[in-house]
Amino acid sequence: xxxxxxxxxxxxxxxxxxxxxxxxxxxxxxxxxxxxxxxxxxxxxxxxxxxxxxxxxxxxxxxxxxxxxx
Length: 70
Hints:
Order of helices and strands: HEEEEEH
Low-confidence stretches: 63-70
Oligomer: single chain
Largest sheet: 5 strands, antiparallel
Radius of gyration: 11 Å
Number of helices: 2
Number of strands: 5
Shape: globular
Mean pLDDT: 83
Helix content: 10-25%
Distance between the termini: 23 Å
């Protein structure tokens, strides 16, 4: 799972597993050396910043990296 190639700030992801399972979030920072991502999610009516393991988020638009980002 190569984080820095798959995700970028601003990408929408779905959280897989844990307390936030199946919630959508927006990536705010990618930390490939630590295999972590920081995301912003709407939780209980407010925006919350959370740091998660990179393998616990799934990009919302599959194949986006292959299509290019310009």
